[in-house]
Design brief:
This protein has ten helices and 13 strands. By secondary structure, the chain is of the alpha/beta class. Helix 1 runs parallel beside helix 2, helix 6 crosses helix 9 and helix 7 packs across helix 9.
């Protein structure tokens, strides 16, 4: 299986991306067949140096300045077009770092991709119609149906290349033209489209047997021990609980220093 690793980010998260890129170089270099970072054309020069330092291919395209996050989500669902020779794609966020030696096989079992999930109904019972429950309505609106499993459970998300084209096709069949549909959605939180829940829903519906479906109420997320996910809007110095293996409660900056990034 040919694999790809993708960051899709922007200049507002540049400082975070520097740490994420260094973590790739330290813990995951050489493990994926293709590795790239996609940014808007207007931010390309800012990312040239951090990408070149660690061997990440820098890609850029014109974005929608008035709908920048919607563009970001659209490009996540077009990742197959960035890697025409790859069979599966892993998505990494700029505010997420690798914390130990790792590779694609950490998110595979018996030759299949692992898709961790939580039942949407469980989220409803636990939190009411707040938080992640809202993404169910976004998915149902985009592709129709009644999605049961929430799959936006932590980075990196990984999907087979055929899931992306089927996602775009599903949106077009149910909600009209792909690009214009994404563009007109609410761009601020809670956004009117949710890329990873939609990709996960398409995987459930059309490619269920190609994945190992991992119930997080029964098993541990495969990223635990290998990835630390932060919250860029909280800043590098806000305290966060990272778990005892990574030193417990500390700021992201302190964690990154501990990891030698």
């Amino acid at each position: 299986m040919k694999t790809a690793l993708l960051w899709n980010t922007y200049v507002g998260d540049l400082e975070w991306f520097r740490y994420s890129a260094r973590s790739f170089y330290k813990f995951a270099r050489g493990r994926w067949n293709s590795v790239a970072c996609l940014v808007p054309d207007r931010h390309r020069d800012n990312f040239r140096e951090p990408c070149e330092q660690v061997g990440i291919t820098l890609l850029s395209e014109p974005d929608w300045p008035d709908r920048s996050f919607n563009w970001h989500q659209m490009k996540q669902c077009e990742a197959d077009m960035l890697f025409p020779d790859c069979d599966a794609i892993w998505h990494m966020d700029a505010d997420t770092v690798f914390t130990a030696p790792v590779g694609p096989e950490n998110w595979m079992r018996n030759g299949k991709l692992i898709c961790p999930f939580i039942h949407f109904e469980h989220i409803l019972q636990a939190a009411g119609r707040q938080g992640n429950w809202q993404w169910k309505s976004r998915v149902d609106d985009a592709i129709g149906g009644d999605v049961k499993l929430a799959t936006m459970t932590g980075h990196p998300h990984c999907h087979y290349r055929n899931v992306y084209a089927r996602t775009r096709e599903s949106v077009e069949k149910h909600s009209r033209s792909w690009g214009p549909y994404i563009h007109r959605q609410q761009n601020s939180f809670p956004q009117g489209f949710c890329e990873f829940e939609t990709l996960g829903a398409v995987a459930q519906k059309f490619y269920h047997n190609d994945y190992v479906w991992l119930d997080l109420q029964k098993e541990q997320h495969p990223s635990i021990g290998f990835v630390a996910q932060c919250y860029s809007h909280g800043g590098l110095d806000r305290q966060h609980e990272f778990g005892p293996a990574l030193g417990g409660r500390q700021s992201p900056r302190e964690l990154f220093r501990r990891l030698g990034l």
